[in-house]
Amino acid sequence: NELGAGCTIYNMIVPNHFEYGMPQKYKGTVGREQKPFIDLVRDNLNESIIFVDIHSYIKECYEKGEYLYFRTDHHWTALGAYRAYEKFCEYANIKPISLDTYEKRSTSGFLGSLYSGSMNSALAQNPDVVEYFVSDLPYTQINTNTIGNTSKGKLFAERANGKTNGYLTFMSGDIPLATIKTENTNGKKIIVFKESYGNAFVPFLVPHYEYVYVADIRYFPYNAVKFIKENGIGEVMFLNNI
Fold first, then answer.
1. At 62, phi and psi to the nearest 5?
2. Bridge partners for 189 per DSSP
3. Cβ(242)–Cβ(19) below 8 Å
4. 166: buried, middle or exposed (CB in 10 Å: 19+, 13-18, 0-12)?
5. How far apart (Å, rounded) are the C-alpha atoms in residues 145 and 167?
6. 3-state secondary structure of 153
7. What is the pLDDT of residues 63-122, one digit of tens each?
8. In percent, how much of the chain has pLDDT > 90?
9. Region 189-212 average pLDDT
10. Cβ count within 10 A of residue 15
């Protein structure tokens, strides 16, 4: 309400790998079905908020055998984020950029948080591949830390090739605020309030907006309403895993 009718607000809740990949024998004993909780949030949102429902589409793609979640880490892959982006485009009335227009790069040997937390030998024998999709569209990215200091940033940190930090490929990890300026002149500005799942998603938004602001909900150093108003941001997205 504080932002007024001119601001469009989206909410996307991302199921994690447990929702689709839990072996039958563990269902009900380890974790719970996530869809009822996602639906509960949807049903209790203010009617002015657009709920971006990705659950069934992610399920459909997962059941086709697509590599949407890492085996050894708690995050989704760039392909998982791209599938969610496709669905977001439907709600935002924009045309998704085809994945085959991107340059696909990858690093192998990633052993993520599920491995480091368990040191499970079966996981060690099945490391992940970190795929990422790079566009040749020019952009500048300024990162702001919690005390307001700025530095240059990148959508992809290609140095993050180590066995334990592969997910840091996406935006170098969790930045309090990243301001991405593109060469678009459409006047469109979006801010994404997210946790780490948003890092793999944000690069797909860049072709569609003049400015993409990326705010980590845990570290963002400003008053959100004031920041949105002062920067004339017309779209707000909340993207969090369940």
1. -65, -40
2. 211
3. yes
4. buried
5. 20
6. coil
7. 999 999 999 999 999 999 999 999 999 999 999 999 999 999 998 999 999 999 999 999
8. 86
9. 98
10. 24
Q: Is the pTM value of this prediction over 0.85?
A: yes
| β-bridge partners, 238 | 11, 193
Residue 159 in this model has a pLDDT that exceeds 80: no
Helices (H), 45-104: 55-63, 78-92
Tokens of 239: 């993207």
For residue 129, with 0-12 CB atoms within 10 Å meaning exposed, 13-18 middle and 19 or more buried, which class applies?
middle
Give me the residue label for tokens 């969090």.
Answer: 240
Place of tokens 């059941």: 63
Label residue 26 by pLDDT band (50, 70, 90): confident
Q: Look up residue 34 and give its two tokens.
A: 């996530």
Q: Locate tokens 């839990």: which residue? A: 22
d(CA 41, CA 50): 12
- Cα–Cα distance for residue pair 100/222, rounded to 1 Å: 38
| Residue-wise burial string across 146-159, b where 16 or more C-beta atoms lie within 10 A, e elsewhere | eeeeeeebebbbee
